[in-house]
Amino acid sequence: MDVLTFPIVATFSILTALVFGLIAQRLLGVRLGLFRLLLTGAFAMIVGPLIMYALLGQFTLSPQGIPREGEGWVVFWFALLGSVLTVLASMAFLVVIEAFVPMGSLPPALVWGRGLLGRLRRTRRYWQIIGIAMRHGLGSYLRGTRDRALDVPSGRSQLGRALTNTLNAGGVTFVKLGQILATRRDVLPAEVADELARLQDDATPVPWPDVEKVIVAELNAPVEDVFAEFDREPLAAASVGQVHLARLHSGAEVVVKVQRPGIRPVVERDLDIAARLAARLESGTRWGRRMGVRPLAAGLAEAIREELDYRIEAENITAVATAPSRQPDVVLPEPHLALCTERVLVMDRLQGTPLNRADVVIRQHDFDRDALATTLLDCLLRQIVLDGIFHADPHGGNIFLLDDGRLGLLDFGSVGRLDGALRDALQRLLVGVDRGDPLAVSDALLELVPRPDEIDQQQLERDIGRFMARHTSGTPSTGVRMFGDLFRVVADHGLAIPPEIAAVFRALATAEGTLTRLTPRFDLIGSARSLASGYVEEQYGPEHLKRAVTEELAALLPILRRLPRRVERIASAAEHGRLGINIRLLADERDRAVLTTMLHEVLLTFLAATTGIMAVLLIGTGSGPQLTEDVGLYELIGYNMLVISAILALRVLAQIFRRG
């Protein structure tokens, strides 16, 4: 083949392949990408000559390739049948591909090739994490061979230790995942959560030149143009970012939170690996399915991604600070929004000591520990019950005891949010617990959780009654134990705690550790019951009720004005026998589309079956004119009808596989 002939042949082959691919696509009623079109056309060009040879091999042609006299039309119809069979084969090839590799399940070839290097790095990291897990004793749990060991506390503790050591060796993202996971006592056994709580987030500080590059890139200005002073030594360093002290040109003392350079690609890669491992655990282990590790991993990944965007933290601080029920004795740092970007957060400095290291300061200034604990709990409960936006991680490191004796809240990278309906149900739950009313508690609980189709409400009320008798009378229980028992009751009845409510219990359990460190005798449950009851009484006091009634009447007034006229119209129509009800079936366009698609598929299936039966009958008929020694006219017609039947059936199958 010479140089000029090759491009012509190649162009003709590609065009022919495209034609066959387009014909198959049109007959199947689906849209394909260019790669699948060419692949289908190439298959047709390979199979087509074989089919033609099998059909036309029975004819005797002259040396010039011309059929014998009288066989020209017969050869034409057989050649046409061969072409149709080639298209049918390409359609079948497409349906098989769609069944095993649906459209969209693989990235386009260009993207696949571009991301090959990244996938290789991710695969290497994936097997690295698997190797770390194996070395720290997590392999048997990954394979699901030690599921029964988790039925006893010692087995769960061993899993917690193996998981903690694995996450600690896995690096930044996995340490962060473990820290957030340690607070999810609503889904994790207490023994596992206790082991995960040992994870530390300390890290080696980033050198100043790298920190300076991030600040300059984010603020589009040299550091000295933005800050009058900047301490190059970090105040604290964690796995995601580190904090520096600085002073603005206005004289305001601030802290600057700077994200580690290049941390986002590392975190995204590791989160993808964590999602794959979660899917493997949920599909391959009993304890993974029981814990729901796949949605759990998705929720943790979302929380970590929010922490990577410091603009979200600045917005969270502003939202909590401007809430109507903000506690005045608790201070929040004010963010300088003009200087807050995705990787840099600038906010006012709070002069004080972290609460988990403030014992000496409390003794020196003789601060009232009980008053501080009550103020902190009151602030948190007001955020939850009244405002619907609250600090989701109130541990001792995020709470400062200020020099003037007030409390300060830091680190709003993770906050919880509750809508009005959830807040109302939560208020009724707390009031029911305070009054010892199992019926009210169970009703409020069913409003908090997605209600299943079938539930034994009477048994739920009995279990709630036993739960309340255990935890709300006699010796006060710890919040962690109480929340654990409540989650157990919920799980036993097939209910699922929404993430928003789980965040509430998680925040309260975290706050209990801070409060009991501040004052060991502090009763979280009793104090929360009394404070929450006070909030409800505040909301339903005379002034609040008067305002609520006024607002409801203002909304109902237009309806009440129109009501007599509408009632009179209905009565008049009934009196004169003209009262009727109009019901529009399939008024929604989506319902009509579903019904139309269903009817089309049923019709195509019926036509395919009918044509196939007729084809079989014609093929089995022995009489009729003979076109060749082996094939008669009726048989040829039957073969063509059989091809039509197959095309219709393949079209239906293609639509079914594409929807799947």
TrEMBL record:
What is this protein's record name? Ubiquinone biosynthesis protein
Classification via InterPro entries: ABC1_dom (IPR004147), Kinase-like_dom_sf (IPR011009), UbiB_kinase (IPR050154)
Task: Specify the ABC1 atypical kinase-like domain's residue ranges.
Answer: 198-438
Output the superkingdom of the source species: Bacteria
Question: Membrane-spanning regions, if any?
Answer: 6-25, 37-56, 76-97, 602-624, 636-654
Q: Please name the SUPFAM superfamilies in this protein's record.
A: Protein kinase-like (PK-like)
Q: Does the keyword Transmembrane helix apply?
A: yes
Ordered alphabetically, the record's keywords are: Membrane, Transmembrane, Transmembrane helix, Ubiquinone
Species: Jiangella alba
Q: Which family does it belong to?
A: Belongs to the protein kinase superfamily. ADCK protein kinase family.
The answer to keyword NAD applying to this record is no
CDD domains the UniProt entry points to: ABC1_ADCK3-like
